[in-house]
Amino acid sequence: MSKTIVNKMGVKIYPSIAFKTPALYRQDDEVKNVPTSTMGFEPYFDFSDEELREIFATLEEDSAEITDFTGKMAIRYNLEGVKNRIMHDDPTPNPKCVALNDHLRLLPDGAVPVCYFDSRTVGNLRSTPFRKLWFDSQETREMRNAVKHCNGCWIACETVPNSVYTGNILGFLWKLVIFPTKSVR
Ligand code: SF4
Description:
Elements: H1 2-8, H2 49-64, H3 69-88, E1 111-115, E2 118-124, H4 130-136, H5 138-148, H6 156-166, H7 168-178
Antiparallel strand pairs: 1-2
Helix pairs in contact: 2-3
Bound molecules: iron/sulfur cluster (SF4).
């Protein structure tokens, strides 16, 4: 209902499934909540299989309406990973993580956290020049090492950059070309 109203106003809504263990948008201190296994994906609510099927059908329908090709592929790639994990116990795709390597997150106060699930910061760009924080900092080196050994997670704002920078999304696109209607199980 609300979606129909805002769509008429030219505003698009893309629903998503919330995690139980985010770290970045919490108001308490810095926390490390990275997944302890490759299956580290816990939705905020407990859904029945029937509810999940309905949710995914809606999300897939919504993704078909996206006109921007890059945006659509990113949403569908993310959706496939969510569905594989919570409906098929299958932790794929699972691209190598590039957080704090190929991109950084920047909080409004200038702090640079590790990633969505690890809000520990490696410094603050208001007090430390980027070059020093990115290239010369021991904290950054240590956190990059932690990222390197992480099990992997599944949240669009991390997995989409991971899929693009590692080239993992190319396999997904190739699958879409071969099986256009079966990309999301
Ligand atoms: S895979 Fe990367 S983004 Fe995800 S929890 Fe691990 S370090 Fe963070």
